[in-house]
């Protein structure tokens, strides 16, 4: 094998290797390429997710406000109940005192 034959054989082998590499690269990119419809679908899903997160945040804020209102209302109701119970206790005590007084006047 002469020097020229060796160079030509090496060049052909390198060229064939280059072509096989280029073809393999083309195949990989052909099968892994993302379609525009997939990108559009991902963008739409991203937008929907963002809207869902905003809705969730609004719902959490509403529930926190509602919970605060109900807690306040419960506290007021409990205070009113305590006041009513105290008034009832005082009325019973006064009624008992009046009964005792009437019995004392009736027995004397």
Low-confidence stretches: none
Class per helix and strand makeup: mainly alpha
**SSE sequence, one letter per element:** HH
End-to-end separation: 150 Å
Please state the overall shape, judged from the principal axes of the Cα atoms: rod-shaped
Could you estimate the helical fraction of the residues in percent? over 70%
What this model shows, in words?
By secondary structure, this protein is mainly α. The protein has 2 helices and no strands. The N and C termini lie far apart (150 Å).
What's the helix and strand layout?
Blueprint: H1 3-32, H2 36-107
Task: Give structural attributes.
single chain, about 110 residues, mainly alpha, rod-shaped
Short characterization:
The protein is an all-alpha fold. Helix content is 94%, strand content 0%.
């Amino acid at each position: 094998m002469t020097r020229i034959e060796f160079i030509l054989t090496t060049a052909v082998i390198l060229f064939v290797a280059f072509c096989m590499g280029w073809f393999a690269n083309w195949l990989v990119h052909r099968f892994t390429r993302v379609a525009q419809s997939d990108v559009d679908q991902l963008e739409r899903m991203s937008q929907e997710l963002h809207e869902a997160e905003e809705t969730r945040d609004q719902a959490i804020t509403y529930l926190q406000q509602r919970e605060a209102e109900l807690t306040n209302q419960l506290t007021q109701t409990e205070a009113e109940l305590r006041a009513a119970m105290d008034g009832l206790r005082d009325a019973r005590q006064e009624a008992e005192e009046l009964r005792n007084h009437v019995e004392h006047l009736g027995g004397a």
